[in-house]
Each structure stands twice: as C-alpha cells, then as structure tokens.
Design goal:
It is a single chain. The chain is mainly β. It has a single domain (about 20-315), classed as Neuraminidase. It contains 2 helices and 24 strands. It has helices spanning about 1-15, 285-290; strands at about 25-30, 35-40, 45-50, 55, 65, 75-85, 85-95, 100-110, 120-125, 135-140, 145-150, 155-160, 165-170, 185-190, 195-200, 205-210, 220-225, 235-240, 245-250, 255-260, 265-270, 275-280, 290-300, 305-310. The strands form 6 sheets. Strands 1-24-23-22 form a 4-stranded antiparallel sheet. A 4-stranded antiparallel sheet has the order 2-3-4-5, with no helix packed on it. Strands 6-7-8-9 form a 4-stranded antiparallel sheet, with no helix packed on it.
Length: about 325
C-alpha cells in the first residue's frame, strides 16, 4: 500500500494525474522546503533546512529553480524576511530536521539590488551561537531591527543589522514549546502596524504582541485564534493580507484562513496531492499575483521533496 501511495504521488507530481486547477505545483527540488518570500519583482525565494542555498524562481516563467551561492558554515536556512527594498535577512545554521534543532546559528543579508547584473551580495550580520532553533524572521518596517523567533527557548531576538548586536527582546510563556525537543514553540512571526503576530506550533496559539520600534513588548499577549497543537500536528508559518486575514500553514496538508475576529476556515486541503505546507506568502505586483498564495510544501517519505505550490485565492469558495 505504501509503495502504491508513493507511486500515485509521483504520478501527480510529474503531472500524469491532473491536480486541482486551483492548486498548482510550479517547481520542486530535493530536500526540505522551509520558508518562502516574494521579491518586489514577484520572484519567489525558498529556504531549505537541508541546503545552505536559497532557491529562486520567476513566478511568471516557472521553468526551473536557480540556486544562489551557499551560506558558509551552514547546512540549512530557516527564516527569511525583507528588511529593505530587495534586501532579505536570513537565518542559517547546522540543522537536524529530525531533532528540529539547529546549532551554529547566524543571520545574514542577501542583497538583490544590483541583480541581474551581478550575483546577489551576501553579508554576515551576526552569529547567535546560544540559540538552538532560530526560526522565523520579521523586519520592523522603516528601521534596521530584525526579529528572530527562537522556537526552543520561546523567545524573540532583536537583531540590529547596522550595529550587528542582538539581545532577547521578548520572552514569554505563550512563546514557549510544550515539552522537550523536538517540540517547537514560537515559529512564524510577522509584523503589521505596531503588533508582532506569531504562531506557537506546540500550543496551537495564533496571537499577537504590541511592540515598540526596538521590538520590545509594550503590552500583554493577545490571543487571536486557538488551534489544536501537538508535536506532529501543528500550525507553522503564515502570512497576513491587506484585509486583516491570516493564511496559516498547518501540518498536515492544510492551509487555514483566519479572519481578524479569529474565525478559522480550511482554505486549502492538499492531502490528495501529498503536499505538507511549512510556509505561505502572498504574491506581489499585478492583481493576479496579489490573489495568488505561494506555499513552500513537502512530499514526505523515505526521501523528501520540496515543492513550491501556487493557490488561486480568487477561486476558493471562501
């Protein structure tokens, strides 16, 4: 039975079996897809916990992926966030995906401002050796501070990309994992207005914290929505749209829509495609791109295949 399931997944993957037209697989690569971001030109960037290189592709011409130069001293990349126009911060390290922990963590920037004339410029910002699960990243708009989620410690680091100094800005029980490794706590983070939005994979909490310009909490944690959470069935990364909705990836095979009132609705079920999402990002640019939700997903098995999927939000019955 397992071999049959793998074979059917392969047929679907190569396009022999027609998939739901609202969900398209647009690229794939060997290894574990972790996080996704969209450039201002609508190109897609995907990180992997099993590769020190970012994958990049043109969303309008998805003929294949290009592989950017590797991050020295790393075997995987977790979080990614745009800190200024066409400059992205990334979190790299030595990852063990079974243990869900990463050592030798460092934060870098990848500068695309001079591409395509040159390769994107890599710059190391800082090492954070004490963290063992530096995960999602988010940049405070208009500043130089990048926030990083430590999924093991249950804390938010503030990293100054100019002074290259860092410190713990927020540590709270609502961010902590539920139990020892491989449990994860705070995972995905995003900033909207004066709030830091977050998911806690272990407790299933989707919440927000009012923050200052330096990333410090200015008020208590607010619960937006509560999911069922466990070690192997949990919310992961997410994105926020202009209407106040959150699009939340959920293990296994699901993307939820959560409105501003905290109401949950299954937006996408990927079980028939064997795609397990880890992160999502809304397209940028044209109206068509802005109504497309891109997801970093994985086909799991004896080997892991990372897949970039595109969801047509305008066709969903929501």
């Amino acid at each position: 039975m397992w071999n049959l399931c793998v074979y059917l997944s392969f047929l679907l993957f190569v396009g022999i079996i027609e998939a739901n037209e609202d969900i398209r697989q647009i690229a794939s690569f060997p290894g574990f897809a972790e996080n996704i971001a969209i450039r201002s030109n609508a190109d897609i960037l995907v990180t992997s916990l099993t590769s020190p290189s970012i994958r990049s592709m043109n969303s309008k011409k998805p003929e294949g992926l290009s592989i950017l130069p590797p991050i020295p001293g790393a075997n995987g990349i977790s979080g990614i966030a745009e800190v200024q126009h066409e400059v992205f911060a990334i979190a790299a390290g030595i990852w063990n995906i079974t243990a869900r922990r990463g050592t030798n963590a460092s934060v870098w920037t990848v500068n695309f401002q001079n591409t395509p004339d040159t390769e994107p410029a890599l710059k190391k910002i800082v090492d954070i050796p004490e963290t063992t699960a530096l995960n999602g990243l988010a940049a405070i708009p208009g500043g130089r501070i990048v926030l990083g989620a430590d999924s093991a410690l249950g804390a938010i680091y503030a990293i100054d990309t100019k002074t290259r100094k860092y410190s713990i800005a927020i540590q709270d029980s609502s961010l902590a994992p539920k139990g020892p490794a491989p449990a994860l706590g705070v995972n995905g983070i995003k900033i909207r207005g004066s709030y830091l939005y977050f998911t806690n994979s272990g407790t299933g909490l989707f919440g927000r914290i009012p923050i200052s310009r330096t990333g410090k909490a200015t008020g208590p944690v607010q619960t937006i929505s509560q999911f069922f959470g466990s070690t192997f069935s949990a919310i992961d990364d997410f994105d926020l749209d202009e209407h106040g909705n959150a699009w939340v990836s959920f293990h296994s095979y699901t993307i939820f829509k959560v409105d501003s009132q905290g109401n949950q609705q299954v937006a996408v079920n990927m079980s028939d495609m064997s795609l397990d999402p880890t992160s999502v990002a809304l397209g940028r640019g044209s109206p068509k791109e802005r109504s497309t939700l891109y997801a970093s997903t994985n086909i799991l098995g004896d080997t892991i295949t990372g897949v970039i999927a595109a969801v047509n939000l305008s066709s969903l019955p929501l």
